[in-house]
Fold this sequence. Notes:
alpha/beta, seven-stranded parallel beta sheet, about 15% strand, Rossmann fold, 8 helices, globular
Amino acid sequence: MMLKDKTAIVTGSAQGIGKAIALALAKQGANVVVSDVNLEEAQKTSSEIEALGVTSIAVKCNVADAAAVEALVKQAQGAFPTIDILVNNAGVTRDNLMMRMDEQDWDLVLDVNLKGAFLMTKAVTRIMMKQRSGRIVNMASIIGVMGNAGQSNYAASKGGLIAFTKSTAKEFSSRNVTCNAVAPGFIETAMTAKLTDEVKQNYRKGIPLNRMGTPEDVAGAVLFLVSDAASYVTGQVLHVDGGLVM
C-alpha cells in the first residue's frame, strides 16, 4: 500500500490505459479522481475502484476546456484533503496524411493532448507547490519520439508533451514536485483490437520482446514514477515499448 492516503487525478481514465492506471494506483491505497468526457463509463470505473476499499469520485471533464479543468480540480479539493498525483492520460487521435488533414483535426489533437496537459498541470501545481510535494506523469508515446506517417498531429502533440515534461520538471523541482513522461509503444487496447492479425504480426516483428504491451504494463511504469521509489527521478521519459525504440 505504497500510496495509502494519497490522492490521484487520472484524466481519460474511464477505460483503456487510463482505467488500468487508476486501478493500479487504487490497489496501492490511493484515492482516485476518475476524469473523462464519458461520465457514465467514468462512474463505472469509479465504482470498481471503491470496491478495492479506497475512495473515488467520477468527474466529467474536457481537459481542453480551462473552465472545466478548474471545476474538476475544485471538486477534487472538495472531496480530498490533498492532491498528490496527476496523470495526464487523456488523449485523442485523428490520423490522416498531412496533405489530407483538416485544420480542425490538427487543432483538436493538439488541444486535448498538449493544451489539456498544460491546463491540468497549471491547476494542480498551485496546490502541489503549497504542499511542497507532488508527482506528475504525462502520457507521451513513442510516436512523439520517432514520428509516424499519417500521424503528424499526434506526433507533434506527444513530442511537445515530452518537451513540456522537461520544462515542468525544471520549474517545480525546488518544491519537491517531480514530472516525468511514459512513452508507450504498441499497446493492446480497443483501438488496436480493430487491427488485422497480419498488421499486428508486422508490428510485432519490430518489437524485440515479440509481443504487444498491455495497459497493465503501462500502469506499472506510472506506479513506479509516482511512488517514493522514484523520488530522485524527474524530467525523464520512460519507454514502455518492448524495446522497439532504443
